[in-house]
Specification:
Number of helices: 2
Radius of gyration: 28 Å
Shape: elongated
Largest sheet: none
Mean pLDDT: 85
Helix content: 55-70%
Distance between the termini: 87 Å
Structural class: mainly alpha
Order of helices and strands: HH
Low-confidence stretches: none
Strand content: under 5%
Length: about 90
């Protein structure tokens, strides 16, 4: 079992003070934990990657359309409000 940062927390509740480790021991612990987390990473399959890519592109296009529409509406609204047709 690997050590976790939770086991080194001060509020562990078991009444013992955690052992103080040195600066380099803390760095080593960080790298051990980082490597153990990276081993859990699962690479997506090609079909999953294509699916994720299409979902992201679709979302970006949808956001572009919404923002462009709002820009058009607010831009024309500002022009309509701030132009002063002179009537005689």
């Amino acid at each position: 079992m690997t050590e976790t940062t939770a086991s080194h927390s001060h509020g562990a509740g078991h009444g013992k003070k955690p052992a103080k480790s040195g600066f380099f021991a803390g760095i080593a612990l960080f790298f051990r934990q980082m490597i153990s987390e990276l081993k859990k990473v699962v690479t997506p399959t090609r079909s999953e990657l294509v699916n994720y890519t299409l979902v992201v592109i679709g979302f970006v296009v949808l956001m572009m359309l919404i923002i462009s529409g709002l820009d058009f509406v607010f831009g024309n609204g500002a022009i309509w409000i701030f132009t002063n047709p002179i009537e005689q």
